[in-house]
Amino acid sequence: MSDAAAAGQPSGQQPQPSGQQPDFTSMTRDIAEVPAVEVITTVAVHLMSSAAVNLGLAEEGEQHKDLDEARKLIHALAGLVTASATEIGSYHAAPLRDGLKSLQLAFREASTVPDEPGQGPGEKFTGPVYG
Q1: CA distances, 107 to each of 4, 22, 51, 98, 114 (Å)
Q2: What CA–CA distance (Å, rounded) separates 52 from 29?
């Protein structure tokens, strides 16, 4: 563990001399300046990545496979993509829908007892998913 991490500092940052406050303005971008579409797609990508890992699709995947966690993440992703699609437009929503469908199909394939059509993760929002 680095000295910065041990001191509770994010990686790559120097500890502040005692009594001095960190300069958050230089450390972060003002959230008010971030377009909503960027926030939504970033959250969606994080959900997709985590779901893929929990489906065992990452390197050394079997070590991280947890279908219960994957189900929750896919369900949350489906809700986000479905609810935000009209707001972010098809240019941004289409790839998110494709990724969601791929994860739903991977979940069905990974399950030892597949869900009935329409009962899989996120299918409450997307409808039944078929290969």
Answers
A1: 39, 44, 9, 14, 8
A2: 28
Is the pLDDT confidence value at 4 over 60?
Answer: no
Based on the number of CB atoms within 10 Å of its own CB, is 130 exposed (0-12), middle (13-18) or buried (19 or more)?
exposed
Q: Are 58 and 70 in contact (CB under 8 A)?
A: no
Say if residues 104 and 55 touch (Cβ distance below 8 Å). Answer: no
For tokens 């996120």, the residue is: 122
Is residue 56 left, alpha or beta, with left meaning phi > 0 and alpha meaning psi from -120 to 50? Answer: left
Alpha carbon distance 61, 56 (integer Å): 4
Could you tell me the CA-to-CA distances from 46 to 4, 6, 20, 41, 53 in Å, in that order? Answer: 25, 26, 33, 9, 11
Task: Give yes or no for residue 103 having a pLDDT over 50.
Answer: yes
